[in-house]
Amino acid sequence: MALPFKRILKTKLFHSFLYRFIRLYSSTFQIRIENESEWMDHFRSGGRVILCTWHQHFFGAIGHFQNYRDFRPSLMISKSSDGEIIAGVAERSGWHAVRGSSSRGGREALKKMIDYLRKTKLAGHIVDGPKGPAGTVKAGVIQLAQAADAAIIPFYVSADRAWYFNSWDSFFLPKPFARVVISFGEMLKFPAAENPATFENHRLRLERIMRPELRVNPEKRSTRPPARA
After folding, report:
1. Does the global pTM surpass 0.70?
2. Buried-most residue among 52, 69, 115, 212 (CB within 10 A)?
């Protein structure tokens, strides 16, 4: 009797297949990397680094981020069914998956992320995952950076040709052979906050820096002419 579809998605065999498919698919991209040297120099000199992006952007970076596998980086991934699939791919890409999110198991997962980051000095974080709202930086990345004394490095992915999904984040998938740019922002350090208001200011600052890089689904752009002055 054939396994139900949802059970197939949870199998190691399917995760291995998906990992190989993503590697093959990503190999068609013409990738250009921008501003990687600054944070890499900081990391190689002993500094801790958190690479963070919007949920919308992460797929286009998977192929390149396999180059960091020898650094044994960690990544927080939700305990949802979708998260189990993503975790399976991440582990095969050389990233250690720490399971948890703001809505389920987040406190324990954050503690594990802090421990791993202190040891390996490199982690990744999806700032608005796993369910948004899109464009809102959640508190976890600031908490992680402060607890581990790490620099936050925003990164962004763009593509000259992409499909946009009708999802909460307008997730985009670069088309085969697309020109993909992975651009790293400046290093950001947030000192320990003395009170909740200061912490919120840190979170809002990161949000203001990152939000302009959200991609707009071309099909959802307004076709109305701009209002006259």
Report:
1. yes
2. 52
